[in-house]
C-alpha cells in the first residue's frame, strides 16, 4: 500500500499547494470529527441568525436529520438550494425565537465570503452490520464541512475500475450514509487514467467521464486532472453550476468536459456581444448543454430575457420533456401551452426567467403589430435585449425566419445554435437571395466543437456497425441504372426480402440471443422513403406485411430461435403525419384508425384517431423506455415503421438498430438518423447497428463521405471492424489459448508458476473479448464452434472454471507493492451468456412499485406483476436462496408499498440478505457450539478452492467440543475427531449452498 499512500500524498499536495486552495485537515479522522467540524463552520457562518447563541444538542440533532439523506439525489435537491443557497430551517428550543433559516452553502459566492474548502483523507467510515469490514475513504473534499467530492485511488498497476467497484461496494454497504450522503461526485484514478461520475445509489460505468481540455485533448494524469477539475473554484462549479438534476429519472447529472467548455465559450462570447454555434455530435447531450447555457446566461445583467427556441413539432418530443425534468429544481419557466398574448406578457415582464417557446408562436406575435394591437407593449418588445438558444438549430429555424426575427428587434439579439451536423460549404443549402447557406453564415463562428470521433474516443457515444445488404433480392446490381432499381425497390419481392432479413437479424441486433444477460431486449426503427412511391404508402405496406408475419398469415415466419424466447415477437407500430385535406387524407386516416386499434389491443391503451398526438407520444415514450411503466418486457416495442419521424431529436439507449430501406440521404441526415442508435447503454450494446437495403455501393460511399465530413478526417474509430477483421482477431486469440483446451493442460495451469498463470489470464481475457465480438455478426451462424475450434460447451466451461479459479487467487493475493505484472481482476467476461435472469433487472422493476416520499402509490398492471413473479421463478432455478429472499421482499412491497416510500429496493434487499446471513451463522454456531466470532472469520475468508480454510483450527477448539458434548449428551459425535469431520463437512455445505448464493450477485 506504500505506493498508493505516496500517490495520495502527492494528490493532497496538488490540492493544497496555494493559499487560495484546499486546506488539509489532518485532525479529522472519523465521521463524528466531520460532524463536529461541520457544526463549527455552520455556527460561524450564521452568527447573526443565531444571535451568538450556540446550537443545542437537540437542535444539532434536528440539523443532522435534515443533512442525512436517503439518496444522493435527495441530497442534491437540498444542495442546489433556492436562488443558489443551500439553507436549513429549524425550530429553536427557545420558542420565543421560533423558526430560523441557517445558510449551509452559498453557491452565489464561490471561492469567497462564507465558503470554506477543506480536504481530509483516510476517514474511518462507520459500520452498518457486524460482518462489515472496517472502511477508510482515500481523499474527500469538503465544502463548508460537507463531503461533496470523494476520490478513490489505485496504483498504476491496477485498473481504475477497481476503485469504481470499491465505491459501489461502499455504497451498497451504506458507508455513504449520514454526513457522507451529501457527496455529489466521485473520482476514480490509477494515476494514469482518471475519471469522474455523479453520485448515485447504482453507479453505471456508462456515466463515467474522463476530462479533456478545450481542444478535446484527454487529461488522464490524476495530478493534471486535480489541477484542471478539482482546484478552487472549478471543483465548486462542477457540483453547483455544472450539475443538473433530472427529476424524472431521479439522477444527478454532472456535465462532461466538452459541455463545460461549450458553456464557458458561450459565456465569454456573450460578454463580447458575439453570436455563434456549438458543434457537438448527435447523442452527446446537446439539450442538456443548451439548458445549462440558458440558465447561466441569466447571470448577465445586460440581457433582459433568454429564449430557448424550438419548433412546434418538438413540443411533443423529448427536448421539452427533458427541459421540464431539469427545470423542476430550477428557476426556468417552460412556456408551451399558453397563448401568444401570454408570451408577450412574459417577454415584457421584469422577471428574469428563461422562456421556452416555439418559433411559430414568436412569429405569430410579430404579426400582431400589423393589427394595431397594444402599441406600448410592442415598443417594449422591440427594445428588448435577448439571447436566443436554438437546439437542433437547422430544423428549428430557417435562415429566412431568423432574418425576420432579427429585423423585428431594434437591438440585435444574440444567437447560439446547437447542432450535431453543421452545414458547411461542402453541403451548403441552395442559394436563396441573402439567406445564409451555411451554419456559420446563419449563426456566426463555431465556438466549440466535439465531433463524433471525439465522442467515440471518450466513450460518450458508440460507433456504428454498418451492414449494406448486397445479397438481398435484386435483378440487377448496376447502380447506374437508378430508375430500374427504384422500381425494384417497391416490388413485393424486395419488401419480403427486407422483412425476412429483419426477422433474421433481430436475433442478434435486438439482443434477443443473450437477453438473460440483462433481462430486456433492444428496439429498432425501419425507415422507408422510396423514390417511385409516396413514402407513407410504402410505410403502410410494410406495416401490413409485418402484421401478417406476426399473425402467421405470411410465408415469412418468425425464426424459431426468436419464438422460443419472445413468443409475441414482433411487437410493431407505425407513425406518420395524417393530414385533413389532401387527396390521400381519407385513406391515411382509415389506415391509421386500424393501426391505432391494433396498438390499443397490443398494449391495453384506448387511443382514437382524434388523439393521434397522444398516440404518437405514447410510441415515443414506449420506445424510449425512460418511464418505469414501459421498462417491463411485456411493454416493449420491437419495431417502429416511419418515414422521417424519430430520425432527428429522438433519444433512447434501448434503440440499437436502424433498418434503412430508402435511397442514400444527404450527409447531415445520414449522421442524424444513424445517431438514433449509438447511445451508450450496457455491456452488450457495442455499436449502433445500421442495415441498408438499397444502392449498397452508393450508400456505402455516401456514408464514408458523411463520416469523414463530421469527424473531421478519418473514420477508422467510428465504424466497427468488418467480419473478416473481427474473425482474424478471434483466430489469433484462439491460437493463444487452444493449447489449454484439453482437461490435462487446463488442470496443469493450477500448478503452474504465477507468471504462467498471469499470462493465461491475460490470454483468456483477450480470447473472451474477441469471442464475444464475433458472436455479434450474423456470419457467426455459419461457424461451428465445436467442429471448427473444439469449443464445446464442456471445454468452454472447463476453461472458464480454470480462469475463474486463478483470477480469484490473484484477487486475494493483490498487493500494490508487488513488483511483478498485475492482472486485471476487475475484467467482466463478455462472451458468456447467462442462463439465469439478471436479478438487478428484477429489482429495477420492483422499484417502480415503491412510491417516492409524499407521492401517491404508483399504478401497476397485473401483467407487470406476473412478469416479476415469473422472473423470480426463473431466478430460483439457478439461485434458490437469493430468489427466496427476493420473493419475500416482493410480497412485502406488493402488500404495503406505502411502508417503503422513498426507500431503495436494493438496500432493503441487502438488509434482508444480511439478516438471513446472520441467522444462518447463528444457527450453525448454536448447533455445533462454536464461537460465532470465529465462525464469521472463517466464512468471511472462505475459499472453495483451498484445501485448508483460514481460522478453522481456532474454530474447532477443544473448548468448543467440550461445550458441544455438554449440550448434546445423546449425540452420536462422541469423539472430537468425528465432531471436527462433521463440522468441516457441514461448514462447506453451509457456504456453498446457503452463503455463497447470497454473495454471488
The overall strand count is 25
* Sequence stretches where pLDDT stays below 50 over 5 or more residues: none
Q: Mind describing the biggest β-sheet?
A: 7 strands, parallel
Q: What's the overall average pLDDT, rounded? A: 87
Which structural category do the helix and sheet elements fall into? Answer: alpha/beta
Strand content: 5-15%
Q: Please report the number of helical segments.
A: 39
Radius of gyration using CA atoms only: 31 Å
**CA-based shape:** globular
Share of residues in helices: 40-55%
Sequence of strands across the biggest β-sheet: 15-16-14-17-18-13-19
Calculate the terminal CA-CA distance, rounded to whole Å: 28 Å
Structural overview:
The strands form 6 sheets. A 7-stranded parallel sheet has the order 15-16-14-17-18-13-19, sandwiched between helices. Strands 1-4-5-6-7-8 form a 6-stranded mixed sheet, sandwiched between helices. The chain is globular. It is 45% helix and 13% strand. By secondary structure, it is α/β, with parallel strands linked by helices. It has 39 helices and 25 strands.
Amino acid at each position: 500500500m506504500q505506493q498508493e499512500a505516496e500517490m495520495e500524498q502527492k494528490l493532497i499536495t496538488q490540492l493544497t499547494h496555494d493559499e487560495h486552495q484546499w486546506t488539509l485537515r489532518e485532525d479529522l479522522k472519523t465521521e463524528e470529527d466531520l460532524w463536529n467540524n461541520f457544526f463549527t463552520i455552520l455556527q460561524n457562518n450564521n452568527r447573526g441568525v443565531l444571535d451568538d447563541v450556540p446550537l443545542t444538542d437537540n437542535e444539532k440533532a434536528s440539523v443532522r436529520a435534515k443533512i442525512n439523506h436517503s439518496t444522493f439525489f435527495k441530497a442534491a435537491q437540498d444542495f442546489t438550494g433556492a436562488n443558489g443557497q443551500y439553507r436549513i430551517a429549524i425550530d429553536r428550543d427557545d420558542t420565543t425565537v421560533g423558526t430560523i433559516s441557517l445558510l449551509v452553502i452559498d453557491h452565489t459566492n464561490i471561492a469567497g465570503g462564507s465558503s470554506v474548502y477543506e480536504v481530509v483523507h483516510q476517514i474511518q467510515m462507520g459500520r452498518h452490520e457486524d460482518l462489515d469490514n472496517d472502511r477508510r475513504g482515500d481523499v474527500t473534499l469538503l465544502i463548508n464541512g460537507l463531503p461533496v467530492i470523494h476520490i478513490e485511488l489505485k496504483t498504476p498497476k491496477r485498473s481504475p475500475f477497481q476503485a469504481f467497484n470499491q465505491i459501489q461496494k461502499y455504497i451498497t454497504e451504506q458507508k455513504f450514509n449520514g454526513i457522507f450522503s451529501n457527496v455529489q461526485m466521485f473520482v476514480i484514478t490509477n494515476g494514469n487514467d482518471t475519471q469522474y461520475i455523479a453520485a448515485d445509489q447504482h453507479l453505471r460505468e456508462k456515466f463515467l467521464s474522463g476530462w479533456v481540455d478545450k481542444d478535446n485533448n484527454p487529461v488522464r494524469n490524476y495530478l493534471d486532472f486535480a489541477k484542471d477539475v478539482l482546484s478552487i473554484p472549478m471543483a465548486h462549479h462542477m457540483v453547483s453550476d455544472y450539475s443538473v438534476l433530472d427529476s424524472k429519472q431521479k439522477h444527478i447529472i454532472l456535465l462532461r468536459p466538452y459541455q463545460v467548455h461549450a458553456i464557458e465559450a458561450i459565456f465569454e462570447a456573450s460578454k463580447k456581444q458575439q453570436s455563434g454555434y456549438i458543434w457537438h455530435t448527435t447523442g452527446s447531450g446537446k439539450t442538456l448543454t443548451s439548458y445549462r447555457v440558458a440558465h447561466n446566461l441569466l447571470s448577465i445583467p445586460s440581457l433582459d430575457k433568454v429564449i430557448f427556441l424550438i419548433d412546434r413539432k418538438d413540443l411533443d418530443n423529448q427536448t421539452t420533456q427533458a427541459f421540464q425534468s431539469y427545470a423542476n429544481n430550477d428557476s426556468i419557466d417552460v412556456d408551451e401551452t399558453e397563448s401568444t398574448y401570454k408570451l408577450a406578457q412574459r417577454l415584457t415582464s421584469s422577471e428574469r426567467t428563461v422562456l421556452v417557446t416555439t418559433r411559430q408562436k414568436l412569429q405569430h406575435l410579430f404579426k400582431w403589430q400589423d393589427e394595431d394591437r397594444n402599441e406600448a407593449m410592442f415598443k417594449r418588445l422591440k427594445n428588448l435585449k435577448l439571447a436566443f438558444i436554438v437546439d437542433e438549430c437547422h430544423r428549428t429555424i430557417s435562415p429566412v425566419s431568423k432574418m425576420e426575427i432579427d429585423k423585428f428587434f431594434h437591438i440585435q439579439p444574440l444567437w447560439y445554435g446547437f447542432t450535431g451536423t453543421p452545414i458547411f460549404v461542402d453541403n451548403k443549402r441552395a442559394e436563396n437571395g441573402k439567406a445564409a447557406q451555411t451554419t456559420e453564415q446563419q449563426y456566426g463562428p463555431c465556438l466549440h466543437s466535439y465531433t463524433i470521433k471525439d465522442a467515440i474516443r471518450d466513450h460518450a457515444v458508440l460507433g456504428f456497425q454498418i451492414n449494406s445488404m448486397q445479397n438481398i433480392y435484386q435483378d440487377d446490381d448496376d447502380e447506374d441504372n437508378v430508375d430500374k432499381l427504384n422500381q425494384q425497390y417497391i416490388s413485393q419481392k424486395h419488401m419480403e426480402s427486407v422483412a425476412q432479413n429483419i426477422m433474421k437479424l433481430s436475433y442478434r441486433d435486438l439482443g434477443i440471443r443473450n437477453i438473460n444477460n440483462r433481462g430486456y431486449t433492444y428496439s429498432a426503427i425501419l425507415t422507408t422513403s422510396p423514390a417511385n412511391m409516396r413514402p407513407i404508402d410504402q410505410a403502410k405496406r410494410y406495416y401490413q406485411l409485418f402484421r401478417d408475419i406476426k399473425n402467421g398469415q405470411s410465408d415469412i415466419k418468425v425464426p424459431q430461435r426468436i419464438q422460443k424466447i419472445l413468443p409475441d415477437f414482433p411487437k410493431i407500430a407505425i407513425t406518420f403525419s395524417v393530414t385533413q385535406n389532401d387527396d390521400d387524407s381519407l385513406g391515411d386516416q382509415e389506415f391509421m384508425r386500424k393501426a391505432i386499434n391494433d396498438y390499443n389491443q397490443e398494449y391495453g391503451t384506448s387511443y382514437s384517431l382524434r388523439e393521434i398526438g397522444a398516440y404518437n407520444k405514447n410510441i415515443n415514450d414506449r420506445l424510449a423506455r425512460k418511464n418505469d411503466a414501459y421498462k417491463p418486457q411485456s411493454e416493449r416495442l420491437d419495431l417502429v415503421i416511419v418515414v422521417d419521424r424519430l430520425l432527428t431529436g429522438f433519444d433512447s439507449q434501448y434503440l440499437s438498430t436502424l433498418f434503412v430501406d430508402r435511397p442514400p440521404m444527404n450527409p447531415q441526415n445520414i449522421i442524424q438518423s444513424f445517431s438514433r442508435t449509438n447511445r451508450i447503454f450496457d455491456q452488450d450494446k457495442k455499436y449502433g447497428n445500421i442495415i441498408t437495403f438499397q444502392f449498397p455501393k452508393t450508400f456505402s460511399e455516401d456514408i464514408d463521405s458523411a463520416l469523414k465530413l463530421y469527424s473531421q478526417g478519418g473514420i477508422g474509430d467510428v465504424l466497427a471492424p468488418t467480419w473478416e477483421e473481427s474473425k482474424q482477431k478471434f483466430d489469433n486469440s484462439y491460437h493463444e489459448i487452444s493449447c489449454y483446451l484439453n482437461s490435462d493442460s487446463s488442470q496443469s495451469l493450477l500448478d503452474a508458476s504465477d507468471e504462467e498463470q498471469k499470462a493465461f489470464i491475460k490470454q483468456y481475457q483477450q480470447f473472451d473479448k474477441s469471442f464475444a465480438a464475433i458472436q455479434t455478426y450474423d456470419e457467426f451462424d455459419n461457424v461451428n464452434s465445436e467442429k471448427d475450434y473444439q469449443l464445446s460447451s464442456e471445454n468452454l466451461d472447463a476453461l472458464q472454471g480454470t480462469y475463474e479459479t486463478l483470477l480469484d487467487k490473484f484477487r486475494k493475493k493483490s498487493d500494490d507493492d508487488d513488483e511483478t505484472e498485475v492482472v486485471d481482476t476487475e475484467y467482466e467476461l463478455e462472451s458468456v451468456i447467462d442462463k439465469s435472469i439478471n436479478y438487478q433487472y428484477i429489482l429495477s422493476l420492483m422499484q417502480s412499485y415503491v412510491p417516492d416520499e409524499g407521492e401517491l402509490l404508483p399504478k401497476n398492471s397485473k401483467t407487470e406483476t406476473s412478469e416479476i413473479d415469473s422472473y423470480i421463478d426463473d431466478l430460483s432455478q439457478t439461485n434458490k436462496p437469493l430468489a427466496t429472499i427476493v420473493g419475500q421482499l416482493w410480497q412485502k412491497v406488493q402488500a404495503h408499498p406505502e411502508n417503503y416510500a422513498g426507500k431503495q429496493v436494493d438496500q432493503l434487499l441487502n438488509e434482508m440478505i444480511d439478516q438471513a446471513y446472520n441467522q444462518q451463522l447463528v444457527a450453525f454456531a448454536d448447533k455445533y457450539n462454536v464461537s460465532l466470532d470465529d465462525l464469521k472469520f472463517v466464512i468471511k475468508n472462505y475459499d472453495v478452492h483451498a484445501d485448508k480454510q483460514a481460522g478453522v483450527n481456532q474454530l474447532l477448539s477443544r473448548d468448543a467440543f467440550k461445550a458441544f458434548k455438554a449440550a448434546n449428551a445423546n449425540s452420536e459425535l462422541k469423539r472430537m475427531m468425528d465432531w471436527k469431520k462433521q463440522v468441516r463437512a457441514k461448514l462447506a455445505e453451509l457456504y456453498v449452498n446457503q452463503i455463497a448464493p447470497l454473495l454471488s450477485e
